Description:
The chain is α/β, with parallel strands linked by helices. Helix content is 37%, strand content 25%. The longest helix has 20 residues, at 57-76. Residues 49, 57, 156-158, 160-161, 201, 208, 211, 277, 279 line the site of N,N,N-trimethyl-histidine (AVJ).
Amino acid sequence: MFEIAHFLKPEELDEALRADVSAGLTSEPKTLPPKWFYDDRGSELFTEITRLEEYYPTRRERAILAARAGEIASVTGARTLVELGAGSGEKTRLLLDALDLETYVPVDVSDDYLLEAAEKIAAEYPELDVRPVAADYERHLSRIPGGPRKLVAFLGGTVGNMVPRERHRFLSAVRATLGPEDGLLLGADLVKDEKRLVRAYDDGQGVTAEFNRNVLRVINARLDADFVPEAFDHVAVWNAEDEWIEMRLRSRGRQEVRVGALDLTVRFADAEEMRTEISAKFRPERLESELEAAGYTLAEFWTDPDGDFSLTLARPQKDHD
Ligand code: AVJ
């Protein structure tokens, strides 16, 4: 029906994976970036996570969007919606129903998912110009098409996957794509009771554990590696100093892993932990100061009734134009 604009050639994606895995597995301590969780199985596992009783963020953000979509429409007058990390699009519909849009630009790295979601939305909203873009929103922001009265949405709390320095760079790069009438709609999870936070990342059914191990399956399949996913335990801890959840994989015993495509042999000590994700949680003041430092002013700040999750509407600072 339509084509995806590809800013990411499959070779580039492969090259980025190789570079990340090679750097991560040879550093001390070992790390792997979370963006490689999301092959088809990883995306399905994440969808399963969003339905878990313990995992509150998706439900809370949806509640805020349901309550505020009308206000978002009237305050922004948005005609163009650019959604970064578009995913499955359930929450998107709340925005599409409320906004009076001409153009919808879903952006995601995983293009199978993207095309499927975009086709469904195009069928449901025949008046809407749907222009899916396969891109890495950390690298290709300036090339993503826009339109008049643009609202850039970055939902789900994915901003928490970045460390503060990366967040600043990312928020500034988004800011650089905004005109004076445009805005950023940012979903961010909030600091709360440690027990609830840890449970949200270490559920009783072990879905998050499978999601975490899935990154090893992705590396096995794409880089000809021989990780035994079951030989790693899922660990979720609250880092109180940095105020983020860390997911790690802990080696059960000593083991040696071969990554064929990198011609690399990696050794794990018994109980060695490899970090696979951070998920930062915010205090409202911090969110505001980070947005201000990146050239925004806070137009609206909403939470759900329990104050679990936040949705911020930020606008470009006037003196920056
Ligand atoms: C999709 C990045 C928002 O950090 O909460 C869920 C991913 N990791 N459970 C998050 C995730 C473990 C999720 N984000």
